[in-house]
């Protein structure tokens, strides 16, 4: 049973993560992982497995969050299912491949490259960049390959695929509301594959807290999932009320926050 002193921060963080997931078509892990880490540290749980538990719990929560957000976007007919069907399998495959290759590549250089890349995209969006009128998304092979690269990069730096899939679709002149709705639908299989992977990876691990299922701490996952489920549809509703230009600038600001957060993690005294 979680104490009231930790329930309120969990509910608040979950609500904000759910709102952002619906608004931008993302998973919300940027907020969920730190709050689960805080919970485990304050309760003296997890020990040497604390980071794996935080990420596994975050993926479990995102399964619920992204499903709720994707459903809300689908009801508003803002999901391009033709893109989802082509990108989802390779995004999941890329994420799985990335998890296998990550140990062989220096994380420091990967993170610095990703920060610079995300900053460039964010500045383009904040400056109201418009792709050429005749530009379109690539064909099936190009979309599948792009999905694999997005999944690969996302797994290396520990974020959801929406951070890259939305700008990719915008460059192909997909309307911003459709790009975000489609990204929300793509986030669900990514979250599901991550949750299953961490559940299986921690299945036979000893020393996990009571109430854990693999690397998922169920008490925290249940509270966070409840609050994210309530707020994800609200984020979707607001996204569809915002003009295209305002939503694009808001997403650009979100990308800058992600880049700043990652830079702080890489260089805390920067």
From TrEMBL:
Topology within the bilayer: Multi-pass membrane protein
InterPro entries: TM_pro_TauE-like
Main localization category: membrane
Transmembrane segments: 7-40, 52-71, 83-103, 109-127, 139-159, 179-201, 213-234, 246-264
Location in the cell: Cell membrane; Membrane
Cellular component aspect of the GO annotation: plasma membrane
Keywords of this entry: Cell membrane, Membrane, Transmembrane, Transmembrane helix
Entry keyword Cell membrane: yes
Presence of keyword Cell membrane: yes
Pfam families for the chain: TauE (PF01925)
Domain of life: Bacteria
UniProt record similarity statement: Belongs to the 4-toluene sulfonate uptake permease (TSUP) (TC 2.A.102) family.
Protein name (record): Probable membrane transporter protein
Organism, as annotated: Cardiobacterium valvarum
Taxonomic path: Bacteria, Pseudomonadati, Pseudomonadota, Gammaproteobacteria, Cardiobacteriales
């Amino acid at each position: 049973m979680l104490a009231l002193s930790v329930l309120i921060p969990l509910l608040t963080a979950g609500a904000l993560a759910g709102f952002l997931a619906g608004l931008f078509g993302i998973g919300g892990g940027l907020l969920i992982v730190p709050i689960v880490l805080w919970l485990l540290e304050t309760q003296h749980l997890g020990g040497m497995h604390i980071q794996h538990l935080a990420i596994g719990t975050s993926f479990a929560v995102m399964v619920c969050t992204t499903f709720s957000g994707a459903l809300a976007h689908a009801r508003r007919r803002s999901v391009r299912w033709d893109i989802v069907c082509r990108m989802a399998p390779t995004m999941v495959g890329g994420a799985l491949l990335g998890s296998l290759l990550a140990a062989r590549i220096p994380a420091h250089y990967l993170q610095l490259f990703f920060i610079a890349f995300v900053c460039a995209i964010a500045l383009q969006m904040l400056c109201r960049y418009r792709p050429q009128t005749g530009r379109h998304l690539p064909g099936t092979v190009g979309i599948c390959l792009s999905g694999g690269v997005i999944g690969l990069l996302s797994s290396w730096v520990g974020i959801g695929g929406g951070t890259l899939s939305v700008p990719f679709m915008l460059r192909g002149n997909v309307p911003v509301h459709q790009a975000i709705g489609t990204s929300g639908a793509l986030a669900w299989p990514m979250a599901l594959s991550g949750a299953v992977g961490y559940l299986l990876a921690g299945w036979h691990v000893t020393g996990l807290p009571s109430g854990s299922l693999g690397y998922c701490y169920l008490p925290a996952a249940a509270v966070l999932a409840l609050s994210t489920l309530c707020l994800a549809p609200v984020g979707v509703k607001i996204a569809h009320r915002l003009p295209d230009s305002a939503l694009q600038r808001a997403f650009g600001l979100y990308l800058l926050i992600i880049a700043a957060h990652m830079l702080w993690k890489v260089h805390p005294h920067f």
